[in-house]
Structure prediction request, 1132 residues.
Amino acid sequence: MVDIEKLRKEAKKILKEGKVKYIIGYTKSSQNFSASPVFITKPEDTSRLIWNPTCVQNLVKFIVDDKQKQCKEKEPDERPIGIMVKGCDSRAINVLIQEKFIDREDVYLLGVSCEELGVLDEKKIAKKLKGGKIEKVDFDKKKNIIISTKDGEVKIPIKEVLAERCLECRANFPVIYDTLYGEKVEREVKEPFKSLNQIESQSFKKRWNFWAEQLDRCIRCYACRSICPMCYCDECVADSINYAVTPETTAEEKAQKIQWIERSPDLSENIGYHLIRAIHLAGRCIDCGECERACPVDIPLRLLNKKLEKAAHELFDYDVGFDHEKPSLISSFKDEDPEDFIR
Amino acid sequence: MKKRIGVFICHCGINIAGTVDVKETVKELTKHQDVEHSVDYVYMCSEPGQNLIKEAIKDKKLDSIVISCCSPTLHESTFRKAAKEAGINEFQCEIANIREQCSWVHKDKKKATEKAKKITRSAVERVLKNESLEPISFPVTSRALVIGGGIAGIQSALDIADSGYEVILVERDPSIGGHMIQLSETFPTLDCSQCILTPKMVEVSKHPNIKLMTYSEVQEVSGYVGNFNVKILKKPTYVDPEACTLCDDCTEACPVVVPNEFDFGLTGRKAIYIPFPQAIPATFTLDVKNCPGLLPIACGKCADVCEPEAIDFDMKPEIVEEKVGAIIVATGYDQYDKEKMKEYGYGKYADVLDGLQFERLLSASGPTLGKVLRPSDHKEPKEVVFIQCVGSRDPELHCSYCSKICCMYTAKHAMLYKHHVPDGQSYVFYIDIRSGGKNYEEFVQRATEEDGVVYLRGKVSKIFEENGKITVWGADTLTGKEVEINADMVVLAMAMRPSKGSEELVKKLKIGMDKDGFLTEAHPKLRPVESLTSGIFLAGAAQAPKDIPEVVAQASGAAAKAISILSQDQLFHSPMVAEVKPNLCTGCGMCVDVCAYDAISIEEGKAEVNRVLCEGCGTCSATCLRAAVQVKNITPGQIHEMIEASVGG
Amino acid sequence: MTKDFEPKIVAFLCKWCSSAGSDLAGVSRMKYPPNVVPITVMCSGSVSPLYIFNAFQKGADGVLVSGCHPGDCHYIKGNFYARRRIALVKELLDFIGLEPERFKMSWVSAAEGTKYTEIIKDFVKDLKPLGPQKKLRRDL
Prediction:
């Protein structure tokens, strides 16, 4: 069990001592039943911090935002930031340290273990409620979620509405932390990449039909890129008429920018964008699922990244985000790397 | 600014024009908006052809050219030179290969022409974005470092020193001479090895241009060709070489006896010793590892008896830093590890020896003063079995390669044995006889014709001791019979391996090593004395098994290569190197990980390229997620356009 | 597909091995179909996934990446990174359903003119029945 009081106490302590400039955590959303990110600057406000399976967001994105902001400041505030991290989120921290985007000392990690559970998938819950509107959500001690709608109460075992990624999660407790809340429960994951099975069992033709239909819907809102903590590049290679020109970019450079993808949301361009993003996240994506959650048109984006996570694991014995001392996937190689696909 | 490109399509006689419609290609390229001039000519590389190009550059004020012709490996430099002579930057010239990769491999003229157009257009797209570049110049330190004081190192050092350049010769043993000084006589002349080598060793010690550092090891190497920084550890010998008179009193006084590595364990030596009488430098050395102790002084007897007071227990190791422009690696060989050949009784039976041990027996200054005696009972062996290819030519269990010299030295051993023991009989078990050098074949024939050596073609299956004799079971495949010899002594021709410690040195120098541990040459045929790292050269058995004449030739070759660097005030490096765009770089360091030349590093959070080390391979560019590093004149932007031109409409 | 379909192949050849091997095929006057247009890069390690995606986007029916054999890379280890990178690209393209016959990688040394010829011949043969590549192609 995660002792939330203990976490709040620690959060209060580090704020009071000035160890961190603020704390990023979860609090109850004012809008709906789930948790919402919150920035706590005053020690007394730490009582607002919560922890339950609705804490779905990957807060590490805010660390990235702060870093980018500080780089532009004349007098940057480089004090560490306190942050609540789940297992998956802690791996994101490891990748950022591995890539020297942040230093270990830049963050104070309040690690929370998902223990036997994980986070909820709102779409799965909505399906169970068959359109009912959620008014209140409670958790009982027997690992059920009790949802109150205007038609009454529904009790559902949490396991039935967990996010797909939690069902195959290999990091249910943080792999890096300053303080840890909850038990390091060892979970056996029989099929770590199960969510890929359906597509992988299909013929190439069927696979294409699936992806063509899914990616045709893409409106290139770039929400997936905006919410991903690893997409911290100032100039995105895929969309070169970029969304963040730095002050140092010369006019000549702007004129010479390579347009790998056109702006139009045609299928070929959508595919191009998602292929580039997936390959650039190879060995870096830790499956926080935020891209898929943020997608306004329900594209199962995390599957593309999961596929490359599986390839890294099976072909190169590489697991992302467990050790920030390791070199990155694409900047290392083994003599035994497979070459059966090479003539 | 709009570029003015000239396109020149070569007929190459009928080599190109016989398949590709050059006129049509010329016409097609005029349609390109940046092509000012497009012509064809029968032999573009000829003088009139080159003049055609130069005149067009002047008349049409062209700033860049594309030549569609043969492979760039043939004439890229020719046309770049012509461009330079006509007044445009040589890197504004690109070659479109429409011969080896088009006209010579296709039959359909229409399709070959279409392809030639695409290839040419692709080259135009590339040159369109080419920058004018100047070769990068950098100064040279006119000194050389030679690592290894065997015959290879000695020869290289003398050649460089004789040419007027300073050489530092580093040797980890107390004396130079390597393995050659341990030999008795050398094939095919049966020259006394020490007699031909010691004059060279003395020359080294006296040469004003050679700084000899024995009992020293290279610790660290950094920098690049022309500008290496080397840290050398000078181990303390505890004996002042200037004061030592070689009187031998310390050796008599020393109580410690250890196996003598110079005689491969056949004799012992004291902790304070001189490896051999003709050692250079001529001084004794205290082997502190086997000394009872200096902190505090546990024994001190050697210093007590040393009249010239040459022994100094306070000597400390020293790190010497040197700057050199070129390095020659001549670290030599060792014999195959005896632990791996237990089946032949090596290490188990006293009378089973390896080739170098046998050399020491034969040597007039050796443990038996040149008498061939069994180590077990000091009796003269009357029957000796020599086994070739021990550990060599055995891809399944040991080394897959042939060690090259064993056939020759085994014949030599058998002959010298007969000269020392006239009533003795020797047998040689062989698979093949490899005697390709000058006078080698005749030498081997003398072994059978004059010295009665019996050659048995077959392998040895078992060796064991019985009643004081070594029984050898083998096969004679030419008669089809099994052979048993109750020999008095067995000599094994062990495989040649790169010297112990080569692997660590290779890592320090960042030169290549092949699957067998030998140093990799830049090209097996055409560049046998250069390593893959510019400025570092290879000489001797460290690169591959070879005999003394080949070693000396290679050592002189490596010296010549080193001199070609040292003799220049400045060197030039290709300017097609990587360049970082700092505003896009996030300092993730992936480029640093992939660079084989350590040419890129993170300075203050951004990647920075050392232009002299960068070889322009582009691996960093493909690895970088942010397109923050690119190689000049072969950028992703250029390839983006080349892809479009190559796919066509 | 129709007998008239001629697949367009873009081949990224490393300068020191594969391009030299292709040159050798030419010197030896071997014959292979003209469907492949080579782009010579310095090292197979310099082939970015973006080039591969872009080639298909521009309408290539097949893409080949060819480099030195492991251990023989002119730049020592570029091909090891290529091996890993191209494996990932292949996994991704297979996953979205691009026909696996369309994207190939090979090791061709400077001495392997025959091998290069066979690779191209087989590549064209494999691509013909698949027809034009429309999945990733940008419509004009």
